[in-house]
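Bench notes, afternoon.
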Amino acid sequence: MNIGIDIVDNNRLKNKCQRFIDLILTKKEQLEYQKRGYLYLCGRFAVKEAIFKALPDTKKYNFLDFEILTNHDGSPYCFNNNKIKVSISHSKNTTVAVAIITF
């Protein structure tokens, strides 16, 4: 098992350009981002960074390799990898995310 954590200053991601968003969010995530706004981007960026920190070899992956969707209860989950468990939390100024990967 590996654990990764990341914290984001929300203001740094407030006005990111579409090119940055295209590098971070999958198409499904972008649709949700359009509804929910920049805090959604902060959460997805933080959780994907946390996943990279938990992975043994990050050079094989990019942000679009991990799609983080939302369960019916509002909790995030990694759609394309059930061995990755994630959690995201927001405050006014920061977002924190944790990823746990089981092998």
